[in-house]
Amino acid sequence: MNAPHPALRLSDRIAELLTDPAAAPVAWSSRPQWRQSLAHGAPGIALLHIERAATGLGPWEPVRAWLSIAAGPAVTSGTDSYLYYGAPALAHALTCAAQARPGTYQRALDHLDQVVAADALRRCDQAEARTARGDLPALAEFDTIRGLTGIGSVLLRRAPDGEPIRRILTCLVRLTEDVKHDGEVLPGWWTLAGPSGERDERFPGGHANNGLAHGIAGPLALLALALRRGVEVDGQREALRTVLAWLERWRDGHAWPYWITPAHLTGPDRRPLAPQRPSWCYGTAGIARAQQLAAAALTDPHLRNDAESAL
């Protein structure tokens, strides 16, 4: 009999150390956001146990224990919630558990579906009002981590036939339309803030973010995934092509700059890129994956080959 792979042994050990929520280090559990954080808290630990139980590598008891911590009273919703925190994060964890054990957690999921959908519609109202005023967006309006793209990914999985996901797709399509600001034509996702989402003196004229976590590659991925699921709104295919053309414009071999500044738009500065992080959030891994999804949605084998070659 072959010995377990070292990675599996490590997973076993981590799961063993994190079996009982009551035994979690106080440095973790004392943080207010720990209970609802998919990235740093209970829902993420629940996912480990869900995957292990679903594949027969562990029991379901830790799943129930961790989800009971995550799904305690007053789940955060609205502007304070996002893909990795609050109602959307808990919906993701519960969905994974319900897929492995059909029929479970349905009441909680039905409630979370309503909460996330209502939040999505509010966010779309705000995005549409901002567009009508002619203002530029904040990253947190549309990005994967805190914005419409992240919320849309939950809705595409939970309620692909509903109005909220179509409203989000429509907002993201509108985001890809050029805008005029201070006499300059800019991509619709240009933001006056820095990459952190805050005003930054290093970015006096703002920037256009290319990343999957905070930039336009996130909406590209969601628009492509929705199209592959048969969820399509007016202008969706053209929006995909617009973003793909933007990324092609700035590509440097098999890499892309993290962001584009006014100096890139108005000057000849096209120096070779410095070494890029091999990350999903900003690097080639994330952008190439978004392009691959778009290529599959548009049935473009040449683009798909380019994206896979980049990765």
Structure commentary:
The chain has 311 residues and is mostly helical. The protein is 53% helix and 3% strand. The chain has a two-stranded antiparallel sheet with strand order 1-2. The protein has a two-stranded antiparallel ribbon with strand order 3-4. Helix 3 (42-54) runs antiparallel to helix 4 (61-70). The two termini are 36 Å apart.
Structural class: mainly alpha
Question: Termini separation (Å)?
Answer: 36 Å
What is the element string, with H for helices and E for strands?
A: HHHHHHHHHEEEHHEHHH
How large is the radius of gyration?
Answer: 21 Å
Shape: globular
Oligomer: single chain
For the largest beta sheet, what order do the strands appear in spatially? 1-2
Approximately how much beta-strand content do the residues carry?
under 5%
- Helix percentage range: 40-55%
Q: Unreliable segments (pLDDT under 50, ≥5 consecutive)?
A: none
How would you concisely characterize the structure shown here?
This protein has 311 residues and is mainly alpha-helical. The chain contains 14 helices and four strands.
List keywords for this structure.
311 residues; mainly alpha; two-stranded antiparallel sheet; two-stranded antiparallel ribbon
